[in-house]
Design brief:
This protein is an alpha/beta fold and about 220 residues long. The chain has helices spanning about 15-20, 40-45, 65-75, 90-100, 110-115, 155-160, 175-185, 205-215; strands spanning about 5, 25-30, 55-60, 80, 100-110, 125-130, 135, 140, 165-170, 190, 195-200, 200. The strands form three sheets. An eight-stranded parallel beta barrel has the order 1-2-3-4-5-6-9-10, surrounded by four helices. It has a two-stranded antiparallel sheet with strand order 7-8. It has a two-stranded antiparallel sheet with strand order 11-12.
């Protein structure tokens, strides 16, 4: 089984180039939502021209139509990844109105969460099973939905029915990605903090090691 890779939280041109050179199939850009890796629409558009040899993914949290309109006009991403509380109905509305492929991220901590994720099958192009974010950060509810380095219990995914195409994220690194794939049989894996030396600053050696771990896992 071949596994595709999405490298997310890209903020620098050199990191985009490194991801493409190492064979990443998807490139994730976090647009106008709470994150240390946050980009404006114009910054994402500049980093992700249509000429890139990989699918460009705009990662959004509960986007309104104004943001989506600006995004489609300036960046026209290949996918919109919805990482908030978007319902299946809202996902369907976005697909219909903006004519864009979608990825729905769902936080997974139990079998119940896997069951809830089934509502997005056939609505989004594929589901991203991610770790639920920490409930508290510095005493307050954490609004940042990804990039925490928190892992899923991969056996939850392994024991549940999954669509043909899905992705797994959450705490993946060059050291554990091969095991995650072996357990979940994920056709796509998503990494952000696991290939960084600081938030939003990727480490070329870690990207290379991550891809090599998959190829030789």
């Amino acid at each position: 089984m071949s596994t595709n890779v999405k490298i997310c939280g890209l903020t620098r041109a050199e990191d985009v180039a490194c991801a493409v050179d190492n064979g990443a199939a998807f490139l994730g850009f976090i647009v106008e939502c709470p994150s240390k890796r946050r980009l404006s629409v114009s910054e994402a558009a500049a980093l992700a021209p249509k000429t890139l040899n990989a699918a460009r993914v705009a990662v959004l949290v509960n986007p309104n139509d104004d943001l989506l309109t600006r995004l489609m006009a300036e960046m026209s991403p290949d996918y919109v990844q919805l990482h908030g509380d978007e319902t299946p109905l809202r996902v369907a509305e976005i697909v219909k109105r903006f004519k864009v492929k979608t990825i729905k991220a769902v936080g997974i901590a139990s079998d119940k969460d896997m069951k809830a994720a089934e509502a997005y099958a056939g609505v989004a192009d594929f589901i991203l099973y991610d770790a639920k974010p920490p409930q508290k950060l510095n005493g307050e509810e954490d609004a940042v939905r990804g990039g925490h380095g928190v892992s899923i219990d991969w056996s939850i995914i392994a024991h549940a029915p999954t669509p043909k195409t899905f992705a797994v994220a959450g705490g993946l690194t060059p050291h554990n990605v091969a095991k995650a794939i072996a357990i979940t049989r994920a056709p796509i894996v998503d990494v952000s903090s696991g290939v960084e030396r600081a938030a939003g600053v990727k480490d070329a050696s870690k990207i290379t090691a991550f891809m090599e771990a998959i190829r030789h896992g």
